């Protein structure tokens, strides 16, 4: 008998029919004698609908109340799944975040799970019951309901696996596993049998939403093996594991993309020491994350252009901060928020020379202009015009033998 954490994402619990499919998966696990803790997301689209409701009242909706509102989606699916199991004569019970409780630290909408009480739930598992826990939420030390960031049910699952010392943590979703790129965008994408934490972390941070990046980070930190698999097929999924256990035959494992970025160019800033610091210090104080930075060679030795990328949501704030910054002089600020980031990720890149050039050549062969570049040991990202994104993913996917 093993203790398993099974997490079911929004599409998997998107309708009552689907919730009954989930109940059947749990029934099968119980018939094998396994102890099951199920983590559920809200029904697909529900969290977005709730956000829209709050925006009908105000765009500045109170943060505490927003967390109370958003956490309700997972409450609904917890109860529905529990009811579906009980209908199958399986002992089951749902708990709300404050009943467990799941204790969190940090700001509303962006909290982090620190611990959970395990006694009641462990006792229930020992008595043959299935425990259902709502994903994405917790309760602060002040007793307020909190949420832990979009896609956060993955993080709840990993935290539960760790805190309850589970034997496995399975992420059930609407695709068969982690693919070389989004299979819903590029149908020739291939399923990956096993992938390292590092690569998965890069892929999810760079836009592959199949796993939430902070969940992968926690799994990596505590060496909790994950398996991503489909709720709707019996096919083998993807194992996310320690890189020592993976055999690398390919330099590139996957291609990710995101449309969250925007590019800002400050034209004609002074070319002297301290200017870059003067530009970026107030941005960092305002919690604006700057991703890529490029400084052009100064042609007159006096002025230069500095280009950098920030999250698209931060563009207006960034422009305002630059305008209010009395420490810098410049000619103009140009923003482009119709850009996208395409990245290749692979632990095998470290040992394969020429990956960088191959990527740039591939993009230039299809006439795609690179606007900014950033690299790390196992990833290479470029900013391009948003309308080129699909062509870029396809081309890179083929170039690196991933089709
Ligand atoms: P869930 O609701 O189960 O949490 P998500 O919608 O968050 O599911 O994540 C699954 C989706 O992630 C897939 O439907 C797919 O479109 C998308 N996706 C993006 N990149 C990848 C990838 N490399 N492999 C698999 N799925 C991906
Ligand atoms: N329901 C939350 C969201 O949509 C959490 C999750 O689904 O993982 O972000
Ligand atoms: Mg998800």
Describe this structure in words.
By secondary structure, the protein is an alpha/beta fold. It is 33% helix and 27% strand. It has helices at residues 16-31, 46-57, 63-70, 72-87, 119-126, 153-163, 197-205, 213-222, 275-285, 315-324, 355-365, 389-399; strands spanning 3-8, 35-40, 92-94, 102-105, 112-116, 130-134, 137-139, 145-147, 168-173, 194-196, 226-230, 238-241, 254-258, 261-270, 290-295, 303-311, 332-336, 339-345, 372-376, 379-385. The strands form five sheets. The protein has an eight-stranded mixed beta sheet, sandwiched between helices. A four-stranded antiparallel beta sheet has the order 13-18-20-19, sandwiched between helices. Helix 6 (153-163) packs parallel to helix 8 and helix 11 crosses helix 12 (389-399). The radius of gyration is 23 Å and the shape is globular. The two termini are 39 Å apart. The model has no long low-confidence stretch (mean pLDDT 95). Bound molecules: adenosine-5'-diphosphate, aspartic acid (ASP) and magnesium ion (MG). Adenosine-5'-diphosphate (ADP) binds at residues 9-12, 41, 151, 173-175, 178-179, 181-184, 208-210, 254. Residues 9-12, 41, 151, 173-175, 178-179, 181-184, 208-210, 254 line the site of adenosine-5'-diphosphate.
